Amino acid sequence: MTNREDYQPVDPSVVPRFAGFATFMRTVTREIIEEVDVGLVGVPFDLGLNHRTGARHGPAGVREMSRLIRRVHPTSGIRPFEICNVADLGDAPVNPMSKDKSIDMIRDFFNEMKGANIVPIACGGDHTIPLPILRALAVDQPVGILHFDAHADTLDEICGDKVNHATFMRRGYEEGLIDPKRAIQVGMRGSR
């Protein structure tokens, strides 16, 4: 039986927000994942970009800023950490010298989470990372997706490369990973 107290975020009245380890929303860290319901995972990857690298630093930045998130939603009063066990599971492994190896490593990491029945929340990284995550999560059946972006990420290729930051939705659909009846895209500025 799980003790929810073991999964409560650090209390800012005990440890100030500027102190301690920077984890997502100040949640506990866990290497043993048997009791985790929701796993927060960084994916520090930006080898799928054709410009403006640096997205690999996203998980660290989100962890740092998420120290400010409150444990109770101010409007709804919902206390998510009393509903489920949430833990920062660290970063998915990547190979900074190989996009293809990184994609396989990311897929394998999320496949392990699926096997443990953990609901993943991923923070990247560039927009290449949803593809290996989908490849892990949609093994048995296509999944629904809610995609917030200014771009549709449905290009066929960029500079001859079919797996990059602008193609994951197209690849996901072509590979049968995304259920088009349960796919919603929000915030598009154009049709590409």
From TrEMBL:
Keyword 4Fe-4S: no
InterPro entries: Ureohydrolase, Ureohydrolase_dom_sf
One of the GO biological process terms: putrescine biosynthetic process from arginine, via agmatine
Pfam families documented for this protein: Arginase
Keywords carried by this UniProt record: Hydrolase, Metal-binding
GO terms assigned for molecular function: agmatinase activity; metal ion binding
PANTHER family referenced in this protein's UniProt entry, alphabetically: ARGINASE/AGMATINASE (PTHR11358), GUANIDINO ACID HYDROLASE, MITOCHONDRIAL (PTHR11358:SF26)
Protein name: Agmatinase
